[in-house]
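To close the section, here is one more complete example, presented without commentary so you can practise reading it yourself. The ligand is zinc ion.
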Amino acid sequence: MAKAEDKGGRVSSQAPANKPEKGRSNTPGPAEKERRGPEDGSSESGRRPSGSSARAQPGGGDGNRRRRGSRGGRSRQGPPGSVPRADDAGQNDDSGGSAGQDAGRRGPGTPATEAGKDRNPELPERSIEGRPKSREAAEAALVRRKPKIGDTMPAPSSPQPPVKRRRRRKGAGGGGEARPVEAVLADEEPLELDEKTLRRRRGRQRKGKAVGRYLMCVHVRPEATQIAVLEGRALVEHYVSRPADDISQIYGNIYLGRVQNVLPGMEAAFVDIATPKNAVLYQGDVQYDREDIDEGSEPRIEEVLKPRQMIMCQVTKNPIAHKGARLTQEVSLPGRFVVLVPHSRTYGISKRLPDEERRRLRSVLDKCKPAEHGIIVRTAAENVTEEEITRDVVRLLKQWEQIEALAGSQRRPGLLYREPDMAVRVIREEFNKDYRGVIIDETGLYDDVRDYVAGISPALADRIQFYDREKEELPLFERYHVHQQLQKALDRKVWLPSGGSLVVEHTEALTVIDVNTGKNVGSSSLEETVFRNNLEAAVEIARQLRLRDIGGIIVIDFVDMEIKENRDEVIRVFRDALGRDKTRAQVFNISELGLVEMTRKRIGEGLLESLSEPCEACDGRGVTIHEELLG
Ligand SMILES: [Zn+2]
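Output:
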């Protein structure tokens, strides 16, 4: 019986206690780490300020036998001679694998009879997309993240919970349904910290001014909130969120879903989560009870999920363009210091922490960890007091109990738990004393964020500043040259300091970056010139990938170098530069043709996608056709 099988009309959120892929050790394996993200900085994602991360397939080695499911859409033709047919959308049809191939797309000759009912989008990317075949190769290619920002975070708890400022949608189903659970961000009782602890956590100051490498600028407009992270004066990260968006920005939200149709051929199921488009649950993200399944390794998806079955699930990937949201049945709740994994045996403490600190945290957790739930301790828990951690656990437990109760009382698909607004999530995950400030140009959001930080990190509350648009001469993003830098980050071409350049091209399957040398070849040898140019390119590419939030497979064509040591050095510098990026990346060695293949984890939609629309004139092709020669 599956995790949340319909039991007499009620949903059980009880996950099986014997999840097969869960380890008991406190040292999560690679797949575990990638899935969890938060406890391991190297797998945290920039565009994903929430705590849980897209889940890896358990036992990475099984990737080979899986087909690539993500691009079953636009570009794929039906089998020769196949008859155009209506989509299976909305039907409870679990027959035949071909359904998946047609899902979410409508061929030119397809009758649009069910246009209104077509809720099945294209399949989102699976986590095996762009994964190396062997675990050894993956391990060798993984870029080790430098332990720095965000690794340690300050204190929790607040006098009062932040005011709900945003215009939230009412319960997803509308019409008198219960409201979804909101994150419990703070306690009723403020936490008392002694003066010594407070002092240790206060950031550095110089002449009364906060000092820190990073600055966060939050610019609010009616149509969107944007967050720019500056390192020094250089823009390094950028986030966009549309207000009260319960449709496209749903990462981390928990839903009660109804299985619409199961597609055995795609090893996936479409799930109605009361959003305009159905979401997708892949076989590897399905939970099931070992005892209910016959002998054999992994059950097939159609054995575990049936149409109309109600399941509790969490979004691990936002819907992007034509692709549906991706779901997992393994729910987790991120807090400031720990992640609660309900009804699981997971018990993880970041390997990033020193042994002694891990021992201390384990003894703290042994006291406050609920027996029936799993816990992952985040790196931010380092040096945090026992009381602070216990409070975090209690807050998450309270949250989970509310979610479970709500799930039990619902009979229709709908939102159960909503992650907080983007600004609060980014602060929860990122803000620490390396930030000299967070500048916000809207009063309501400023009040919320200041309250929140005063609660979780009182020593840093004065770093939250209000930017009064009425009084300031320039808009916030002009003042810090953010707009200017964003414009540049949208260009295809990027100039390098010595006259060389990069050209960034996006294709459906991957991103290609071409490195060019400048015209001015200096006095030294050609090899030396090329080497210098490639070194500059390596650093700039790392910066651009992060700023542009480019994910998936990336192929870089460095200028050819003859000397092996030079090639190795370019890769070394490149990996080193990528270490600043908290998003997970893997870089492989230069191929015979001088290409570097790499992957970077994708969570968000990318800078270009978030700030642009495809051109209508050329349909994204970038050329206009000489129609007169074709008529
Ligand atoms: Zn165009």
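Once you have examined the tokens, check your reading against these statements. Residues 615, 617-618, 622 surround zinc ion (CB under 6 Å). The longest strand covers residues 254-263.
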